Amino acid sequence: MNLSQGQKIGIGVGALAVVAITLLLIVTNLGSIAAWIGFDEVGNLNGREGAIGMLLSPESRVQNLTQCEDHAGCSAVWPIIFAGGFAFVIVTGFAYTTLLERRLLAFLQARVGPNRVGPGGFLQPAADGVKLVFKEDLMPSGADKWVYRIAPMLKVIPVLLVAAVIPMGPDLVLPWFAPGLGDIWFQVPQGLVDSNVGILWVIAITSLATYGVVLAGWSSDNKYAMLGALRASAQMISYELSMGLALAVPVMIVGSMAFGDIIDAQRNIWDWLVFQNPLAAAILLIALLAEVSRAPFDLTEAEQELTQGYMTEYSGMKFALFMMAEYIGMIAVSFIAAATFFGGYHLWPMDGTPILAPVIFLGKVVLFLCGMIWVRATLPRIRYDRLMQFGWKVMIPLALLAVAWTAVSVVVGDVLGGAAYPIISGVVFVVVLGVGVIALRRMGADEASQEAIPLEDDPWYTGERNGITWALVHLVGLLVAIPVAFINFNIRALEGLASFGRTPEEDRALESNETAITTTSGGD
Fold first, then answer.
1. Which of 171-180, 315-324, 326-335 has the least mean pLDDT?
2. 467-479 pLDDT, tens per residue?
3. 349: cis peptide before it, omega within 30°?
4. Which residue of 86, 184, 330, 522 shows the fewest CB atoms closer than 10 Å?
5. What letter would DSSP give residue 183?
């Protein structure tokens, strides 16, 4: 719309008039505004008075303060309100994470990205949702129909449950109307539940999400989908081991598996656990990236090899549920990373304002999301055997090293005193860094000096009986065989004891039944 010169002048004069009137009202009521904020007569800010005092320490200004869990009405209604608001934020965040990814990828790759639907492309997620709603919902003729329908829900629901044990901030003080008590103030939590086994809950729930992928690939009656499902299960087993070991580090440092305790132990930036064990933080970030099958670990849905993998036969809203699970999974693992190693909702100087704690937390989550998108735009998809090799030969040994690092630092710190822990941890960090640099340089020199071994002569393929690898493999096989042999021995011993109470006729009848069963099985 083109405006004339007179219209532009009129709009400018009106805006200046509004600004002038606002400034005049502020100046004439400056004393009242200062008192409301918390300034005294001489201009000093009193943190215990006014609006500032209400935000920083509301319990000092409220006389009738009640804990929410101590009141039946509040304890029943507040979790429903918080869960509804949190679910709305997560689902809306999923929609706009797709827009963030497309716009940020376009920026990193010198493209434009979606910018037509709505101002700046802001309504593009809504357009994508409407398109998926009206797409035809197809089902393969050979699919297991019930499992095919349930699999997307098995993928989405566990991802939504991950964030249930992560508090978004300290307790809030809110006015509440209670029948019979009038207007009182309640101290309400900013979370659904702060379980004392929150770390175990996260490990268990993230494992359940893989069942949705496996069942989707199996029920689709498609070989590409089945291959993607098998890759997902193998990837989950490989990387959840290192993820669990990395999550053990904050548990050892803090002495608690509750996310609230872990977050409260990181009030200052220098208290963040990433500075106490950066190796464990790096392992956790990589394992969480593999957990949600993001690039370069998106082998479960490799378009070039598997034509979208486990989602090949899905369309319409079922396909949208898998996409929703992926992006909500990105948000959930960002919550986990921020809570365990990066201070959670703590950030100086806004740490004392409970109402800003969710904003701080969500800001850190957005930064992690941008990092995941940056990794996708930068790194290519790795080969599947390299993916498994990296998980078993690199991630797990380093995760064990990180756990040993923290265990030694905590034990020595407890013996020598609290101030000795950061010193011991720093010394171990320097030692680990130095050994790693020396080992990498030696490996590079060895690879440069050695000639490529032909495949037919490679001991990995020929099974040649030499080297430490062959010895370790057979040692592990021996350790596994010992309990199996012990179990077989016990079974035979129990069968022998059971035979003491049988008569010869019962023994002959039992043998004839076993022979008949074996003959029937062989004939089938």
1. 171-180
2. 565 666 667 677 7
3. yes
4. 522
5. E
Cβ neighbours, 10 Å, residue 489? 10
Going by C-beta distance under 8 Å and a sequence separation of 6 or more, which residues neighbour residue 198?
165, 166, 257, 258, 259, 260
pLDDT, tens digit (0-9, with 9 covering 90-100), for 385-423: 888 888 888 888 889 888 888 888 888 877 777 666 777
Distance CA 115, CA 123 (A): 9
Across-strand partners of 172?
188
Residues 21-39, buried b or exposed e (16+ Cβ, 10 A)?
eeeeeeeeeeeeeeeeebb
Distance CA 355, CA 207 (A): 33
Answer positive or negative: Cα dihedral of 501, 505, 511, 513.
negative
Q: Is the sign of the CA dihedral 301, 152, 242, 271 positive or negative?
A: positive
Taking the C-alpha atoms of residue 256 and residue 321, their distance in angstroms, rounded to an integer, is 35
Give 509's contacts (C-beta < 8 A, 6+ positions apart): none
Q: Which of 236, 337, 319 is nearest to 283 (CA)?
A: 337
Question: Which element (helix H / strand E) includes 96?
Answer: helix 72-108
Residue 225 phi, psi (nearest 5): -65, -40
DSSP reduced 3-state for 111: coil
| Direct distance between the N- and C-terminal alpha carbons of the chain, in angstroms, rounded to an integer | 82
State the helix-helix crossing angle for 396-416 and 420-449, rounded to 10 degrees.
Answer: 150
**Backbone CA torsion sign across 331, 200, 286, 281:** positive
Q: Are 166 and 198 a contacting pair, CB within 8 Å? A: yes
Specify whether the CB–CB gap between 155 and 301 falls below 8 A: no
Give me 42's structure tokens: 């001489």
Q: Coil, strand, or helix at residue 74? A: helix
Which residues are paired to 183 by β-bridges?
A: 177
366 has pLDDT over 60: yes
- Nearest one of 25, 55, 24 to 37, comparing CA atoms: 55
Range in 86-90, 141-145, 225-229, 424-428 with the lowest mean pLDDT: 424-428
pLDDT 10s digits, 488-517: 777 777 777 666 666 677 667 766 766 665
pLDDT, mean of residues 142-146: 82
Q: What Rg, from alpha-carbon coordinates, does the chain have?
A: 31
pTM: 0.72
- Tally of CA atoms within 13 A in the half-sphere of 461 that contains its CB: 6
Higher pLDDT, 83 or 513: 83
Positive or negative, the Cα torsion across 277, 282, 288, 290?
negative
User: CB within 8 A of 415, min separation 6: which ones?
Assistant: none
- SS3 at position 416: helix
Q: Where are the alpha helices (DSSP H) in 182-222?
A: 198-219
CA–CA separation, 198 vs 195, rounded Å?
Answer: 5
CA 308, 314, 319, 325 dihedral sign is negative
Question: What residue ranges in 142-188 does DSSP mark as E strands?
Answer: 172-178, 182-188
Structure tokens at 486: 């012990």
